[in-house]
Amino acid sequence: MASTQKTTSAMKMISSAKMHKFTGQLQRLSPYRDMVQQTLSHLLLTDVEFSSPLIETREVKSVAIVVFGSDDGLCGAYNINIVKRLQDVLRNADKHYGKNTSITIFPVGRKVVKSVKKIFTNGVKIETTDYMNTRSDSDDLSRFTASLRERFLDGEFDRVDVLYMHFKSTSRQVLQLEQLLPVSYEALAHEADARQANSPCIFEPDANAIFNSVLPLFVRSMMQDVFTQSSASEQASRVMAMQTASDNAKELLESLNLEYNKLRQQSITTELLDILGGQVER
Hints:
Pyruvate Kinase, Chain: A, domain 1, 8 helices
């Protein structure tokens, strides 16, 4: 039991270190993401009418849902909650996307891939990508995002959503279902403020050309943020799972020690009574 406590404590420390690594990555991503957002906000404050295939909405007949989970276990109900939310989304697909909409699921993470293939056998297409997992680097993520973007532009998908766990703190992660494509004006102008409105800019060659150049970077930064949020949430869930396991092991050890001491006391008492009984008989 003591060895179990040591093991869970060691795993908790490793997961905690990994979690801090990913939260650090989120902080380092922030300046780049803010710069892209600020550029788009400046553009949106002009009187130019923008046009881009990445913001064009069309009748939704085919949807891609990218689901981020984990490759490894021992992270509590992390993957279970994600799959349950996916089930809820699919049950209400007519409400979310419209009737007679075909859905393709892109599970990322070995545990989620296994669960999705086991549960969703009829009516839903499941597509796995060999190079994408929870340990993929930025090049693989860029390649994956570019593939989804091209398939959206080609009309294979009319909408691309991402389902992931958003990191709030070590003890709190929130499931999020966000629209990646087409990009909405609301998402682009989310962080625009009055200070930007008072900052005049000159755009060369022109605002619309810059808009179409920066928009793919916005999609890429959004996917990177989602991927890192998911990774941080996975490690946070594992930290909490290991803490719970360690606490349970400690409680069980204390209970067993108490029971052992009771039995030992009973044994000593019995032996003393036998000794006293033998003396009385003599």
